[in-house]
Every structure is written in structure tokens, then in C-alpha cells.
Amino acid sequence: MFKNLVIVESPAKAKTIEKFLGKDYKVMSSYGHIRDLNKKKFSIDIDHGFAPIYEIPDDKKQLVAELKKAVKSAEIVWLASDEDREGEAIAWHLCEVLGLDPATTRRIVFHEITKNAIEEAISHPRAIDLNRVDAQQARRVLDRIVGFELSPVLWKKIKPALSAGRVQSVAVRLIVERENEIKAFRSESYYRVNATFLDKGGAPVKAELSRRISDKDSAVKLLDDCAHASFSVKSVNVRPVTKSPAPPFTTSTLQQEASRKLGFSVTQTMMVAQKLYEAGYITYMRTDSLNLSSLALGAIASEITGKLGERYLKTRQYHTHSKGAQEAHEAIRPTDISSSSISASIQEQRLYSLIWKRTIASQMSDAEIEKTTVEIQPSTRDEHFTATGEVINFDGFLKVYIEGNDDDADETDGDLLPAMTAGDTLEASAVTATERFTQQPPRYTEASLVKKMEELGIGRPSTYAPTISTIQARDYVEKGEKEGSERKYNVISLDGGNITDKVKKEVVGSEKGKLIPTDIGVVVNDFLTRYFPSILDYDFTARMEEKFDDIAEGNLAWNKEIAMFYELFHPDVDSALNMRLEHKVGERVLGVDPHGKQVSVKIGRYGPLVQIGDGDGDEKPQFASLLKGQSVSTITLEEALKLFEFPRNLGTYEGSEVTVAIGKYGPYIKHEGKFVSIPKDMAPAAITLEEAEELIKAKRSAESKRVVKTFDEDPEVQILNGPYGPYISCRKSNYKIPRTVTSPEALTIDECRKIMEEQNAAPKKSARKYTKKK
DNA sequence: CAGTGAGCGAGCTTCCGCTTGACTT
């Protein structure tokens, strides 16, 4: 028996605040939402005011039972879910399910987990805000309608099991449109001219010409002019600049910075952050707030003054400018700022250190920098050279943390310049014109896509990472694997009066980890933007958010707004479903084959394919899948016809046939009933018998390493090497080697038998379904 | 692991936002 029951969203939070509240309070967690629409059914009663039909999912039933029991034995129930739209709805669902009265149940909120904030919240309970709950219901119902009406259109018109939604479809659109910009981009070359001058004392001054030179002839001419010029200082300009620190982390900026500085994927960042949160090292990691609690501000201030001195402190409160931010939590910060490092896994330490530095820096003074610009005039030309130098007079926050940058800028200013005054003469020791190329727009990375999504207000901190996984799982987008390629460029130098011309090489255009649309992504996007332009509009979410705000204010009725939307949206769905097109969506006719039959490419049930014959006559068409790296939009007739040359017989090796074929998992070589995959960088159409033999040999040697140990006593028991490390195999059954075993190769047959027995005896835990791709 | 894609037919797939498990032979 206890007096008070407090329900929060997160179990880690429950643990923390239970400590603050004392023994009269029991704190439990709802683990997020406890009710939702059915996972598979539409669950919206369109004819009755779009009433949502909620249910408690199976994996929440036990939790709900426990909450019900706790409610019975409590005198007062406090609903302390987050102070945002979803939190309000969670509180309301709790009332509905637990049989509490929304009008009288005490609803409390706190933005920070401190004793003061919690006591303050307890002393100011309010009722549930039903208008805000309605805004959440509108959001939920809208997303269900869009997702569950649009996806089936794609199943019918393009390919089964595809999906569309308010957030994911716009994310895909961003990536497809960026790719289109890149395709339309034509790189141009120009010359950048750098020079090193020497002052009277022989000190070097690095400078760059104030304008770009468009072509090689002009560059040579300029260098020639410089060879016959004298140089003098035209002007010296010194001005102070200040730099301010970046605000503390939100989910989005943490994902970006962990990607730039630690090379983490957004999922990885969130997994590591979750660990840190559960261990009590950091505050909540799914947040859009820049706010730091007053307690935290005080602790950070004393940390800075104590370690670095008063001069480095500048207390700042940041305010978010993000669209749709709901600020239910604090910014992401260490819970104990006096710990600059923690003992945990390497990844956890690195992420923690990043958060610690960013948090400290956000409360530090501006850096004070003196920027010097010197203009250097050649006697033979109108344009001048510019040298810039920086002197840091006071480092401020730079002492601790510098924010990363997405574009790989190759500017280098910040050199120290020798003292110069106008009229000084300088001597040119070297002038170099380097060929450069205008840059195509950069492809999105996971992190830069999150940044863009946040700017547009689509998605929430809890969904950035899952959305990026979804669009990859649906094969709309994939991460680039191509390393960069070599490019040649000219370097023309003037050195000691002679002009020399060299060709250098650089590696550019690496696509590793960049998001690139697939054929399916492109076709789905073209289809959706054409037939559902309003949903795919970048401002759709922002406009809906305004409606939700009005609903939350009590100025609009949620189901009327949904009805208005539905009246416009649903007819578009119907007409898209029923339209008849001459060609399948995304189909492209390449021409005719030698027999005069039509050759076309399109998206089939299993992905992109080529088809010979249009199926009009009696003859059955022929099909072949496109290879990885080939695209519906760029494949030529010739390349398409080559795909029908498989399986290809290469000849014989060790007396048996060697054939090349295209399978479900890509191109492969078949020999004596064994399959050998062909690596991505080899063209299956051009592979030779010799190359195939090499691959077969390589596969055999890998195979021989697979067996770690066999036993004379029992040939059916083997220790094998698998992707997760060594394991025991016996008659098609596999057994995990316990973690306590340090050297599996030393296991005896008896030990193996014991391990197998134990695992056979152990009740097989209800095998969780693993949604494995392919 | 290693084609499958029409001409039968049924049944399945799918959204966004809150939360954490239990799981890797």
C-alpha cells in the first residue's frame, strides 16, 4: 500500500525521480504509448467522425495489468508523461485504460529532472488538456490515412510491400531531387592562383589572387605578368572578430556531430546515447530542446570557473528556431558535468566526451580574434592578391570544442602574418595557378538528411533514425559504396622566373556512405509527386502543424479538419487506383531486339527487370533482372540484351563445366554443384575461365578455414567459424559457445556434448521474429 | 543461398511517434 502513484514515460526516468520523491511515492513507467490503432487494420471509422479505434497491443497487456493493480492500491495517481502532444495523449490513454477521470486526475509536467522541478510540479497539478489530446489524435489519424491509403496504391501500380507516408516519402524526395541536381550539374574548371611573397626580412606571406582565372591561357599570361612585376602592399586592414560557441546538443545535432567527428551512423549514435542515458550519465537523448536546467547551468558555471577561470565563463540560454519543436525535455547534457570522462565502452566514452565538451563550450566566452587582410598589388596587373591572417587574442570556447563542418572546405586561412604597412615592397618567391573544378551539390549523408528534415519540420527526434532505416529497408535509397575516382588537374608554377606546367592527380567523388536513390525510389517518387503533389510538398507537414496548433488551442475541431483533408485526398487515391496507363509506371521502351521484338525496362515484382516481347501475341515474354549498378533510367539496349546471355558456359575446369549465371543474390559461378559469388567489381559478362578458376580456388581456401575443429570420437560434431564467431555444429543443428569459453579451439568432445545438452534442455525462448531482409 | 516476373486465386504487405527489450545460429 502506498499513497501516491506517479506514471512517467521512461523507466530510467522513473528510477531517478523515485529517489527524489521519497517513500510515499511509487513511480512507474508507461514505456511510451500504451494504446494505438491496430497494426494491420485501418482502424478509423470514417463514417463516424473519423473515430479512431484503439487497442492495447499484446506486448503491453501485462504492463497495463500491472498499472491497473497499482492504481487500485494508490490513493492519488499523478500522470507525469512529457509535456508535448504525444505526452498529453499518453496521459489521456492512461486515464481511459486505467479508469481514471481525465477531469480530476492530477496531470503534472516537468522539463528537467531536479528535486525542485519535481516538487514544483507536484504542487501545481492540472487537468488533462483534451484539446491537445485532440491535436495528437488528428496527427495520428492523418498519418494512418495517408500511410494506409497511399501504400496500397503503390502495391497495385508499382510493386507489392512498398510504403508511403507523410515523412518517409518526403525524405526520399529530398534524396531523389538532389540526385537530379547532380545529374544536371556540369563541372567547370577554373584556376586558383596562390603566391608566396617574401618581405624585406625574408618572412613568407601566403596570398591568393582576388579572382578566379577561367582558363589555362589566361593563367599562363598572369604568371608571365607576375614574372615581370614588382609587388607592393596596397592596404592593411585589421579588424576584430568574435566567434560564439554552438548551442548544446539536441538529437539532430548530436547525430550530425557524431557522424562528422566519430563516424557514427544515426542509429549507432542513438544506441550508444541510450546506453549512456540508462546508466545515468546523460539526460534524455530524444529531444529538440536547447534548454539547460538552472541547476545544470550553475554546475557548468562552477566547472568552468574552477578549471579555467572566471574569464572563460559566459552563461547563455539558447532558444530553438526549429520548426515544430515541442521542447518537452532539456538539451542533451551530462548529468554530472564535473565528470569529464566516464568508465564505459570506447564508443560510450567517445560520445560522452563529445557531449561533455559541447555542453561546457556552450557556456563559455566568445573567442576574440584579430583578422588581418593585406592587399598586395602587382605592378603589371589590375587585380591584386589577398593575404589573410588570424591572431587569436582570447581563445574562449575554442579551448574546449569546435563544431564540425559538413563541406570539406579546403581554405586555409589563419596563418600568422608578419607586420606590414602600406607601400612596403615584397618579392614573389613562387606563384602557382592550380586547376580547380566547380563542385556538384553534395549527396546527403544520414546525418545531413536529418538536418534537412529538421529544417523542414518533418519527423521527430524519436523517428529520425527509424525513418532513415525504413527508406533503406524499402529499397528506395541505398548507401553508396563507390570509392572516389582519379582526376587529373593542371598546376602551372612560376618559380625563379620560369613557368613550368605539371599534371597532378587527385581522388574525388567518393560516394561511401552517401544516400543514393535506387530505381524503385526514383519511380515511386516520380509517381507520388505527380499524383499526390500536396502530400509530397515540402511544406505539407508545416501547414498541418499549424492546424494541429489551432486544434490544441481549441479553435478547430480535429475531426472536421481531418474530414476536409479526406475529401480532397481520397478521390485522388481512388482515381490513381483506377487509372489505366499504356505503360506500367516507370516503364521505358529501349527499342527492339534482332527479331524485332520490343525491349523494355521497368520495376517488376522483385525489382528492376528487362522484358523482351510485349506479351500481345501468343509468345511469352522473356525476363531478366538488372544487375547491381545498372539502372532503369540509364541502361542501353545493348546492355539490356546482354543480360539474356546467361547462363554462360566458360569451359571446363578439373573436368567439369564452369558456368556463369545471375541468381537471386547476384551473379555467381557454378562448378561441380558449388556456387561461388562474383565480386561486385567484376563484370559477369566479361569474366574469363582463368578468373573463374581463381575465384573457385579462393572460395575453397576460405572454406577450409571454416572448420575450426573436428573430433575423431564423433565426426558429426564440428566447431565451425561463422559470421558471429565460432559455434558448434551437429547434424544441422547449431549451438552457441558460452561466453565463458575463451578458446573454443581447445574444447573437448565432452565439453561440446555438455554445451549441446544444456542448450537442448533449455526451453526454447519464444523465437522472436526477425525481420530479415532478403 | 543461387529465378522468380502472364494468362488461375487468396492472402499478405503499409503509416508516425512514444518507449524499451531480448536476440543473434
Automatic annotation (TrEMBL):
Task: State the Pfam families in the record.
Answer: Topoisom_bac, Toprim, Toprim_C_rpt
- Class of enzymatic activity (EC top level): isomerase
**Which transformation does this protein catalyse, written as a reaction?**
ATP-independent breakage of single-stranded DNA, followed by passage and rejoining
Site annotation (Interaction with DNA) points to: 33, 139-140, 143, 155, 286, 474
Active site residues per record: 284 (o-(5'-phospho-dna)-tyrosine intermediate)
UniProt similarity note? Belongs to the type IA topoisomerase family.
What gene is this protein a product of?
topA
UniProt organism field: Heminiphilus faecis
* InterPro entries associated with the record: Topo_IA, Topo_IA_2, Topo_IA_AS, Topo_IA_cen, Topo_IA_cen_sub1, Topo_IA_cen_sub2, Topo_IA_cen_sub3, Topo_IA_core_domain
How is the quaternary structure described? Answer: Monomer.
Function of the molecule:
Releases the supercoiling and torsional tension of DNA, which is introduced during the DNA replication and transcription, by transiently cleaving and rejoining one strand of the DNA duplex. Introduces a single-strand break via transesterification at a target site in duplex DNA. The scissile phosphodiester is attacked by the catalytic tyrosine of the enzyme, resulting in the formation of a DNA-(5'-phosphotyrosyl)-enzyme intermediate and the expulsion of a 3'-OH DNA strand. The free DNA strand then undergoes passage around the unbroken strand, thus removing DNA supercoils.
Name of this protein: DNA topoisomerase 1
Q: Name one GO molecular function term.
A: DNA topoisomerase type I (single strand cut, ATP-independent) activity
Toprim domain location, by residue?
3-113
The record ties this protein, via CDD domains, to: TOP1Ac, TOPRIM_TopoIA_TopoI
